[in-house]
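Final report, closing paragraph on structural work. Over the funding period we assembled a curated collection of sequence-structure pairs, and we close with a single example.
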Amino acid sequence: MIFHPDRMNTHEVLPLPVKTLIVGVGNPVLSDDGVGIYAARMLMERGLEGVSIEELPASGLELLDMVLDQDRVVIIDAIQTRGGTPGDHYILTEEDFRRTVHGTSPHGFNIPTALAMGRQVVPDRMPKELFFVAIEAEDVDNFREGLTPRVAASLPAIVDMIEREFVRRRA
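Its predicted structure, as stored:
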């Protein structure tokens, strides 16, 4: 909270603005693996105020440095689940990834492992709110720029949802 100098006599306290970061993760030359990057680019084109939007073509420790000192972080990435329909999306939290945290070399840290490490090493600098928007991918193996048709068709509605749920509603 901060004190507003023009209102000192009324003792009114104004909240600090929430620092929100949206990170699109993926490799845009591996078809649907790049869906997070494409979503971030679409959000950037909207010129949203009060939110930082970044692209991250890597993961793990690079992401950890980006999320430090943020209040809210939304990570957009591709996912493949058994029986999933390409273009579907899921809103997940760190808790949903507890079983995927593992110790490896620094070159093999996945996103959940890096975040868990941050929570242990610098807990006071980690985001208070952290969400994953996982978009069901069809193809993450073939080198080609662009998304598969079903994933591409779903992206505008997913980007609308991200803006509505994580930028507008939670501001």
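The mean pLDDT is 87. Strands lie at 2-3, 13-14, 20-25, 51-56, 72-79, 89-93, 129-136. We thank the funder for supporting this effort.
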